[in-house]
Amino acid sequence: MNITKLNITLKDKTLVDINFTIDKSLALVGQSGSGKSLTLKALLGMLPEGMACELESDSEFEFKAGKTISFVPQNPFTALSPLTKIKKQFFVEDAKVCELFAQVGLDEKLLERYAPELSGGQLQRVVIAMALESNPKLMLLDEPTTALDPQTRVMILELLKDLRDRFDFKILFVTHDINSAKSLCEDICVIKDGKVVENGKMSTVLANPHAKYTKILIEANFANRDFRK
């Protein structure tokens, strides 16, 4: 799918003016303030009041948040009530919830617990299960592994990759962590100040970045050059 135009403005100021293609999975990478979060909010129809958005796409499916588009937040606590049992926070029948739990590798017993009783990795799996409820065509990921320990981070990325291949949905992974993006995405789009500065195949861009900004991001993410191999 192609986002042929995404233009976000506030009064007379252009905040984001980009376009990109999601073939299978795309990492949208940039530092804080680059426009990543605004892009996500625009795709979800959740821009702050006062901002105007022009969004054009040639998607093969209806581009609608909550139906064909699902969302996995950085902090799963923002998507879960701490006072409600996990099983009561889904919008599908119990049998379907159990099926979703199995798909993300969670024990059904956790459905009787509350969010504060679960580990960070378990909570992220719960949120991913919720994101699967609507059989999405596109899953938006907002730094879903940032708060996790290295071992759990790898497990979540492998889970997302497996689910993507099994259920054939596309992924837009919004992050500043190129190392995690490399594990999950085939393509990368680097943005700075609301503009695309570089895009292409992940392996090609990491091995031979052209933009100075991309080089800075890569050097900040990796302690050595072995990742390019």
Give the integer mean of the pLDDT values: 91
CATH architecture: 3-Layer(aba) Sandwich
Q: Tell me the strand percentage band.
A: 25-35%
**Number of helical segments?**
7
Q: Separation of termini?
A: 29 Å
- CATH hierarchy, class: Alpha Beta
> Which structural category do the helix and sheet elements fall into?
alpha/beta
Instruction: Name the strands of the widest sheet in spatial order.
Output: 5-6-7-3-8-9
- Proportion of helical residues: 25-40%
Sheet with most strands = 6 strands, mixed
CATH superfamily: P-loop containing nucleotide triphosphate hydrolases
The helix-strand sequence is EEEHEEHHEHEHEEHH
Domain count: the total is: 1
CATH topology title: Rossmann fold
Characterization of this structure:
The chain is of the alpha/beta class and about 230 residues long. About 30% of the residues lie in helices and about 25% in strands. A 6-stranded mixed β-sheet has the order 5-6-7-3-8-9, sandwiched between helices. Strand 8 (about 185-190) and strand 9 (about 195-200) form a beta hairpin. Helix 3 (about 120-130) packs parallel to helix 4. The longest helix is centred in the last third of the chain and has 18 residues, at about 150-165. It is globular and about 50 Å long. The two termini are about 30 Å apart.
